[in-house]
């Protein structure tokens, strides 16, 4: 958390997330991944619980991903920490002035985010990175609560189509004016939802970064746009 900025209700919510056991399949998978780690992580103690959100509790930018990686956040206990997607994400946030360092390797590595908070639609690592609709729906109340408690958020960056859909569902559930028909996901797609802007971004997965579908310049561009939009909305009182 950023020094001097607090949100006690959000802190209480995030502290409750790791105790969740609503989805038996995900509980079994996250624990199996911890019990059978790849050789490079043998001997490490895994978190093996749901990953709470992380960042500035008074953020104006909320980043939403799909779910923790089995040997990323499921190992380290912090969202997007210890995997290749996080390497891309935090390097971009650092270049954009939203993080104090370009790496995220462990929960105690000194990383701090400025004006930015990161969460995910599903909080447990799913097999093959594919949660079921029921698992998504079981987990969405966490995101819904975050949206209600983080009144300072003006821009939501959805990393991938799954996160885009999850954000729209969560916004609708808390009574925000989500347009119909459902807005389509796309890189740099933008949707007005009340006083917030939903901004689409390709997920920084290896599939996208290795193939060049997502480049560093493209990712940086999303966060530069998010910064400008968040600042403008805050200044105008939107």
- Provide the low-confidence segments as ranges: none
The tally of beta strands, per DSSP, is 6
Strand content: 5-15%
Order of helices and strands: HHEEHHEHEHEEHH
Number of helices: 8
The biggest beta sheet, please?
6 strands, mixed
Can you describe this structure?
The two termini are 25 Å apart. The protein has a single domain (8-236), classed as Uracil-DNA glycosylase-like domain (Uracil-DNA Glycosylase, subunit E, 3-Layer(aba) Sandwich), CATH 3.40.470.10. A 6-stranded mixed beta sheet has the order 1-3-2-4-6-5, with helices on both faces. The chain is built from 8 helices and 6 strands. By secondary structure, it is α/β, with parallel strands linked by helices. It has helices at 8-16, 24-35, 73-76, 84-95, 133-149, 161-173, 206-211, 216-236; strands at 54-55, 61-65, 116-120, 155-159, 190-193, 196-201. The mean pLDDT is 95. A hairpin with a 2-residue loop joins strand 5 (190-193) and strand 6.
List the helices and strands and how they pair.
Layout: H1 8-16, H2 24-35, E1 54-55, E2 61-65, H3 73-76, H4 84-95, E3 116-120, H5 133-149, E4 155-159, H6 161-173, E5 190-193, E6 196-201, H7 206-211, H8 216-236
Parallel strand pairs: 2-3, 2-4, 4-6
Antiparallel strand pairs: 1-3, 5-6
Helix pairs in contact: 4-8, 5-6
